[in-house]
Write a structure and sequence with these properties.
The chain is mainly alpha-helical. It has 2 domains: 46 residues, no CATH class; 89 residues, no CATH class. It contains 6 helices and 2 strands. A two-stranded antiparallel sheet has the order 1-2. Helix 3 crosses helix 5 and helix 3 runs parallel beside helix 6. It is elongated.
């Protein structure tokens, strides 16, 4: 082994080859230090965070959350346009049936899921909630300008 594989064990302090999880000389030291229990707990907590996982259940959950966000955005836009007496735009935006709008929002949400794959929590939250909110603000500013 090379010198870089040797060091002082994080548990027993002996100068040995460090072969167990970044700083332990043996499995016994790794277990006795409590680091194994902490690593197991951290992994369980990580798996519970739906925004980091990319399994089917997490994707479905995120798609539902984002679809709700896009539908809220759509109906807020309609409300803003109605309040600002723009019946032509309201008529154009109300042509799709609610079922079609749900389909469109699900497609948008699946696309958002693809964008946010493997990204950080804050980026995912921006993609999920920030984009509809920023678009809503931009439409409100544009109409009131």
């Amino acid at each position: 082994m090379s010198d870089k594989d040797y060091g002082h064990c994080n548990y027993c302090g002996k100068y040995r080859p460090l072969t167990w999880n970044g700083g332990y000389c043996s499995e016994r030291c790794y277990k006795k230090s409590g680091q194994q229990d902490q690593d197991t707990a951290d992994e369980i907590n990580y798996q519970m965070l739906w925004y980091y996982r990319d399994d089917l259940a997490a994707v479905i959950f995120r798609t539902i959350v984002m679809s709700i966000g896009w539908n809220v955005f759509y109906y807020c836009i309609l409300g803003i346009l109605r309040d600002n007496s723009q019946p032509t735009l309201v008529n154009i935006l109300t042509i799709p049936t609610p079922l079609v709008m749900v389909g469109i929002t699900v497609v948008l949400s699946v696309f958002q899921n693809l964008i946010e794959r493997g990204k950080s929590k804050h980026f995912r939250w921006f993609i999920q909630f920030g984009i509809p909110i920023l678009l809503l603000i931009a439409v409100e500013i544009k109409i009131n300008a």
